[in-house]
Specification:
Layout lengths: L2 E7 L13 H16 L3 E6 L5 H12 L7 E7 L2 E6 L6 E6 L9 E2 H9 L6 E7 L11 H4 L10 E2 L19 E2 L12 E5 L8 E5 L2 E4 H12 L6 H11 L8 E3 L2 H4 L6
Parallel strand pairs: 1-2, 1-3, 3-7, 5-9, 7-10
Antiparallel strand pairs: 4-5, 5-6, 8-11, 10-13, 11-12
Helix pairs in contact: 1-5, 5-6
Length: 267
């Protein structure tokens, strides 16, 4: 049985005022927790300029390559998220995307990840942790939420990169926009367990929490894990994060089959 992880963190972006502070810390702390508390030995970390689209996809493919029954695999990503709008039809639709370091030329559409994960054997234990915005709400958000450099006492900023910065279309009615993908598979059929920082109509926040920069979801997930590393199931971790996250206006999501949600973490 192999325990392998691929952890990505991107603070540095090519647009003025769009850098983040906590993503690199997220990636390195996930790696530390997996190594120290769960015995992972094969861990790859990709940070900032090394986390291009090609290197991220190559890293995921390497993580999944030759995986066999009983293997425990973890992919974590802390970065900006965004959307790719399609406004040519009768109703507004969009693709959710991850923003790699070279986002000015490339993006990672959610369907690309889904296609990779669907090919994993059902008896491989895959956990995916995404602490970034999958949001279609940019045109309705207050300015203080969508300008990352605007200061708050905890230096709070959102992990959302407006498509306008890349010359992309901005949704005119984001609350009514729908994901372009067709829901082919119910949650019960998912092979992976997905823990995400927020819903698809919210932002994930990046902030100075107790003197350290992190994503809010990641910070409280790590806190909960360090307090009870062997006692937590995915359901219990999700409940603990929800109770700890406080005044950050985001709702972390847990998706997967009922059986997988009941599993102990990283087993």
């Amino acid at each position: 049985m192999a325990n392998k992880a691929f952890c990505v963190g991107i603070n540095d972006y090519p647009y003025d005022g769009s850098d983040l502070n906590g993503c690199v810390n997220d990636a390195t702390e996930w790696a530390s927790v997996l190594k120290e508390l769960y015995g992972f030995k094969d861990i790859t970390i990709s940070l900032d300029k090394d986390a291009t689209k090609k290197r991220m996809l190559d890293g995921i493919k390497t993580l999944l390559k030759k995986a066999k029954g009983g293997d425990v695999l973890v992919f974590t990503n802390s970065s900006h998220g965004s959307y790719k709008a399609d406004t040519d039809g009768d109703e507004e639709k969009y693709d959710e995307i991850l923003c790699p370091y070279d986002i000015s030329d490339n993006d990672i559409v959610d369907d690309e990840l889904r296609n990779l994960f669907e090919n994993v054997s059902a008896d491989v234990r895959l956990t995916v942790i995404l602490d970034n915005c999958f949001s279609g709400t940019a045109t309705r958000a207050p300015v203080s939420d969508i300008i990352p450099g605007l200061r708050t006492p905890d230096d709070r900023r959102v992990r959302f990169l407006s498509p306008a910065l890349r010359g992309g279309k901005v949704l005119q009615n984001p609350w009514k926009a729908k994901p372009k993908r067709v829901e082919k598979h119910p949650e019960s059929a998912m092979k992976d367990v997905l823990l995400s920082g927020c819903s698809d109509k919210e932002y994930s926040y990046d902030a100075n929490i107790d003197g350290t920069y992190h994503g809010a979801m990641t910070y409280y997930a790590l806190k909960a894990i360090r307090e009870a590393p062997q006692a937590l199931t995915y359901n219990r971790l999700h409940g603990r994060i929800t109770s700890l996250i406080g005044d950050y206006p985001q709702h972390p999501q847990l998706e997967g089959s009922t059986a997988n949600k009941r599993r102990k973490l990283f087993t």
